[in-house]
């Protein structure tokens, strides 16, 4: 995979001239359109045939609004982001401004649906029709679930919006925008929602168009015509195909449209140009225009195609209310339309977000700590994830106990590669363990991040001693390990309770595991313990060893018995490799067989972790 931006358009590739995107705040991945017109070289991208629809604006720039609605977003914490340049002809006359509104007006469908999309005073009917067609086919909300979403701070306030697109290779990524839009006389000049009301705009379609213009460089770039199939690919990640209607039979048109609709695949129809010789006068259909195809059927022996004008108004007479939705006989459709663009479907999200691997503590205070990590992505390391699940616990975190740990409120994810910050507050003095998982809009979750140890308040004692006088002191045991009293001294023993051996008739095994032990303030740490290893000699049978786990990770063997003994002695092992981390110790025994188990067993006492 390779691509490079060129300084000029390759004339052999381009059918119609196009504007080169201007400098952007973020270097976005290339679109299929940029590959198509030669602004980006990408030999491994297959560019499908598509129809270019010149941008001719016929839609009225004025429109009526209904009454007020109660839906309004608190934008007090909204970030002010860079905006794409408006059309050249509108510069100096119109500008960006804010107004009351919401991403989706819950007073209506409580959703972002196909007939919300109304083209404005900009020549991007190809974009409006493709967006409306994708929403119409998105029955299961595979696209809408992640197309545009609120990005919130840790206190739940909306700070910006993220719009999901797919690059020339079908990889997801996101463009962030704020709520500022271009207005004329207080109304949206470009794309608008049919649900917008006076005093309460619905921003979803407007912001999707704004994000597309920001990705491509400006409204000028997208506002003078384009390819509907490229937009379908940008919205779904799936490649579209184009068919000239003149080369299709009647049944191919009707059956092909209906099959796509049933399969939840978007379809757009394009009319001929003004210089094609087709007379559009009095038809209610416009030249050089793109329409959403809603279905096709045969009824009472006559074939019909059902369409939607993305203006939201203007249609052939005799089709009921002027809402832009109409049907026409196939013969008229053949005469007025030149091509059909069939979308490739809606790409299901099959990839989980990438796991965080660089979580670290950047600052500690008497009762708080600040952690940082690098944002991964929605699909591995691409696209913007939808949420973080940050957990904190007083015991080491693993996948098995992550869900039971305390959840920490955090802001929504940023773009991949951004440094993220998590602040833990109101912490009592002690040691804590923190980890994070990443979530996407389809419910997929990353694996657990690296686990970090946070110590706040007074530093813990450098030495940690377990003499088992006051009980098990947080240690857990399995198999034949149990707390006993030997020579008036409490300790742990691996052996048959009540017997002087470990001959239980089967293969004796067992483990003795410590609680978490912080080595944050321990210089050159060493673990020592008193033991009597009254076991079978040799390394093949009656195996006894010590393992260490750091920060809830894998267990590593650090000591193994050599020769048995019938008296108590002290063993020690350096833990310097784990300095500054949180560790657990695990004594483990395996007799390997059920024979020659008549000795007293393994006694462990006075486990101490201290500086060397």
Note the main attributes of this structure.
612 residues, mainly beta, Immunoglobulin-like, 6-stranded antiparallel β-sheet, 8 helices, 35 strands, disordered N terminus
Terminal residue distance: 54 Å
Helix content: 10-25%
Going by CATH, the architecture of the domain at 464-611 would be Sandwich
CATH fold-level label of the domain at 464-611 = Jelly Rolls
Mean of all residue-level pLDDT scores: 87
By DSSP (H or I, 4+ residues per run), the number of helices equals 8
Q: What is the topology, as strand order, of the major beta sheet?
A: 11-16-12-13-14-15
Rg for CA atoms: 34 Å
Give the tally of β-strands.
35
Largest sheet, in brief, is: 6 strands, antiparallel
Provide the CATH top-level class of the domain at 464-611: Mainly Beta
Beta-strand fraction estimate = 25-35%
Structural class: mainly beta
Low-confidence stretches: 1-25
- Overall, the morphology is elongated
